[in-house]
Amino acid sequence: MTVVDTTPATLREAPIPPDGMYEGPRILRRVPEGWEERPYDRFEVVPLGRVIGAEIRGLDLSRPLEPALREELNRALLEWKVLFFRGQHLTPERQRGFARHWGELETNPLLATGTSEDVVRFDKGSGATPTFENIWHTDVTFRTRPALGAVLQLREVPPVGGDTLWADMAAAYDNLPAEVKDRIDGATAVHDFIPGFARFYGPERLAPFQEMFPPVEHPVVRTHPETGRRMLFVNTSFTTRITGMERAESDRLLSFLCRQAHVPEYQVRFHWQAGDIAFWDNRATQHYAVNDYAPHRRVAERVAIEGDQPF
User: Fold this and answer.
1) Where is the TauD/TfdA-like domain (predicted)?
2) Which of 67, 113, 148, 243 has the fewest CB atoms nearer than 10 Å to its CB?
């Protein structure tokens, strides 16, 4: 029997290694072309990576943010995609108040809450509940309007391990072969909560939420609403297929695209201390919580900010 390869020529001929990775120089642009870089007057920015991740020093986040300070922090967020603040020890209310400077807070009935319904609490490591956050993902892309960002605080840290990594998905897009860019520009993909949350819960627990969170379609390449940068917007947890493609073709291309978050040049890794805060742009990043701390306990609380519909 003759087997016919139906993969489009542009994708079939693209130089895609089996593991999805490339060797050699990479395009590492932290900001869009033409972006005006200005000094920061109200705090110190200490870069932790080439394209993503910076520690912000000289701020007490328990104090109210004046408009000018909020504008500078937002500019830093857009430039560095994830900001780190050491030793803040915010109360849940102060943490929520800080996040509200960027919009209304999001609730997620699929996750355990802390002091209020918009504070998600992750208490992992020491009990019988397994942890599954060690997968590259963007939060809640199964929503029509995925979260703008999130503010995470570590309440209790293990003696070793428990780091979190973030990846810059604009850098991931910049380095795709031209043939792959041509293939995915204008394409959409289906996002569904069930593949991601099946790791946590059985079918009986998930069934009631299927009407609340039906599958949605988003662009495979998203345009950032504030910077204008183009970014990969697919992830292993929630993206199930590329619209209009045969399943085998879709699986091959999605696997390749999702592996781009694994490239170290696009990443920053943060080692937590109790009271530290990370504030990340969920539109522009993926993240991965390293699961290497059991049987020690790791307790974190997160608030998420409502976002816009990707375009």
Assistant:
1) 45-302
2) 67
